[in-house]
Amino acid sequence: GQQLNQSPQSMFIQEGEDVSMNCTSSSIFNTWLWYKQDPGEGPVLLIALYKAGELTSNGRLTAQFGITRKDSFLNISASIPSDVGIYFCAVPGASGGGADGLTFGKGTHLIIQP
Amino acid sequence: DAGVIQSPRHEVTEMGQEVTLRCKPISGHNSLFWYRQTMMRGLELLIYFNNNVPIDDSGMPEDRFSAKMPNASFSTLKIQPSEPRDSAVYFCASSLLDGITDTQYFGPGTRLTVL
Fold first, then answer.
1. In which region does residue A60 sit, left (phi positive, over 0), alpha (psi from -120 to 50) or beta (all else)?
2. Core-most of A6, A89, A110, B25, by most CB within 10 Å?
3. pLDDT in tens, B24-77
4. How far apart, in whole angstroms, are the C-alpha atoms of residue B20 and residue B76?
5. CA A51 and chain centroid, separation
6. Could you say which of A88, A99, A107 has the minimum Cβ distance to residue B97?
7. Would the pLDDT of B1 be above 80?
């Protein structure tokens, strides 16, 4: 099946720093999604990208859909303590839409040191 | 809106026992998904339903796993007999396929421990 390579696996940063993470694949996708998972909770959708080259923001979060359609990036500016969690990239299944289940990257653990 | 509801939140059982996980999707949603999360394998899709019909169960690891959706507001994932390697967090998610948005909303998960 399709595989997403997400990096870094974990990040230890100081509050206020900017964060950058990415996902790559050998396959082309029409949709890239970014989720965040807080401890003890299910993943929550942060940003959805539907067009190659698209740059979308959600508050301090900015995500980009790579022009090759094989990668995506998520940036967090001026990190705050509540940004702590696991961030996942995800892509839909064969149909490319919500009718299919999602394939997730392995996640990036974000840890913020006071 | 109550969101996706899963029960129980935690389940501890002994190897060989039957385990049933329950999910109530968001009212009005027409797709339901079961995922499993482990440290080693991350988040994996097990099975999903569209309009209560199972569409793809290729992610179900073994015949010991089965899922049903008898109506639009309820689904179960059953493991029989359970094994220690089934220990994981199991998530249910639902979405509305309306051609406008297809966001999947996840429940809080059921943490299963098989001793």
1. alpha
2. A89
3. 999 999 999 999 999 999 999 999 999 999 988 888 988 999 999 999 999 999
4. 7
5. 15
6. A99
7. no
